Amino acid sequence: MAANEAVDDVLETVAAVAPDVRAGLPGRRLTEAGVENPSGETVTAADVHADELFFEALGAVDGVVEFASEEREAVVDVTNAAGDAGATLSVAIDPLDGSSNLESNNAMGTIVGIADEPLPAAGADLIAAAYILYGPITTMTVAREGTVTTYVIDGGEMQAVEEDVTLPEDPVVYGFGGRVPDWPDAFHDYAREVETELKLRYGGAMVGDVNQVLSYGGIFAYPALSSAPNGKLRLQFEGAPIAKIIEAAGGASSDGEQSLLAVEPTDLHQRVPVHVGNEAYVERLENALAQ
Ligand SMILES: O=P(O)(O)OC[C@H]1O[C@](O)(COP(=O)(O)O)[C@@H](O)[C@@H]1O
Ligand SMILES: [Mg+2]
Ligand SMILES: [Mg+2]
Fold it and tell me: Are residues 84 and 8 in the same domain?
């Protein structure tokens, strides 16, 4: 099977699973799984459920040979008995992004990176990336072959609603994670400027906050913190796939010095400072941090 068809299958499979993830949320709303994930965070029953649904479905896709998840320690070899002829795709997934928003019933998402290299892969090796937003409507935004398309997911099917999605030229919103006293001085000074120019939009789920930036223009960041120099978000499951989408939509991404797509992958669960949005804001951020 050609890689292109296998990518189609992965994206269609993710879309097909999304309604089941969503339908499984109510019963798992306030239940913790009683375990920590490889990043040392509390896992909810909804995280585990989403991870299992995506693992079952994506592991069975012909052409997918590696599966990795924010909720699993190691990469799983999912080469099927037939040998996955043709394509050798690796899929890295954040099954439920922003799951702490379950308690307050706010937006959550799923983030997917598809690479044709073994995991952990560099952002530059992603051949497609997508996120699902479980908002009032379930949408899926896909970067592929340099362009971004947004779909509504209806009955597990993808219906394109916007093609060639690009960031608006006049930025409107910003959202920065972490506590202000924990921000390094240079980021603090930059944030003070940005807040005089843009409106604050921070909902506590990266997918929701990034989708606001993609819709209205602006910048989202979960920066380096004094207590956590690599920030909170993970390169494989969050930073790189989101960067792939924002860059394909005409925006920019940065770890503070370089594109997130250029960051060298050293560990499956490595964290990275994340800044994504309109180029001018990301460039100013890099200049501010360089001082
Ligand atoms: O609660 P905080 O510190 O604002 O962190 C919010 C960030 O953490 C995350 O929830 C981490 O993702 P997970 O829920 O997948 O662990 C992001 O979605 C979000 O941007
Ligand atoms: Mg996440
Ligand atoms: Mg998650």
Answer: yes
